[in-house]
Amino acid sequence: MERDRTGAPGEGPLDVGCAETGLAMLIEASERAVEELGLSVPPAQIRALLIIDRAGSLNLSRLAEALGASASAASRLCDRIQAAGLLTRDRAAASRREIVLFPTESGRRLAQWVRRRRRAALGDVLQAMSPDGREALARGLRELAAGAVARVAPSGSGQRPPNGRAVTNL
Fold it and tell me: How many separate domains does the chain show?
């Protein structure tokens, strides 16, 4: 069986297949933790809420970009999150046409609760790794997260994400 490898010039190859397998294990542990909560809020709404909560506030187009969805699909998703009492919308001070999304207090509490459960589940999975392996993984994930978070800046920050899809539901 041939491994899928890639790498930057001058650096060693990256075993993408192995990285994908490890990432899948982490994602599955995270998803299981949320499923075990038995929430009435669907996973797509949880994902959007976590993105908004992490940013503090976000405009609708940036949320759509982070989700990899159209603005109209993100708006419908936000309608459902707002109806559940987890999200509010307001007009931006700088532009009355821009809609800014904020988690409600209930939304913030739910996001914190979900993150605590996911972190506990991930911690259990990571205990199987050596301390050096955990530190290397943590260092790599910090780099990855810093790049992803920078692509979805809070509204009003003056920063624009690139045209690429941002992945920020960590």
Answer: 1
> Which pTM value belongs to this model?
0.70
Assign 3-class secondary structure to the chain.
Answer: CCCCEECCCCCCCEEHHHHHHHHHHHHHHHHHHHHCCCCCCCHHHHHHHHHHHHHCCEEHHHHHHHHCCCHHHHHHHHHHHHHCCCEEEEECCCCCCCEEEEECHHHHHHHHHHHHHHHHHHHHHHCCCCHHHHHHHHHHHHHHHHHHHHHCCCCCCCCCCCCCCCCCCC
- What pLDDT digit, counting tens, does each position of 118-159 carry? 899 888 888 989 999 989 888 888 888 887 666 655 544 444
CATH of the domain at 111: 1.10.10.10
Domain that includes residue 41, residue range: 15-151
Angle formed by the axes of helices 71-83 and 43-55, to 10°? 90
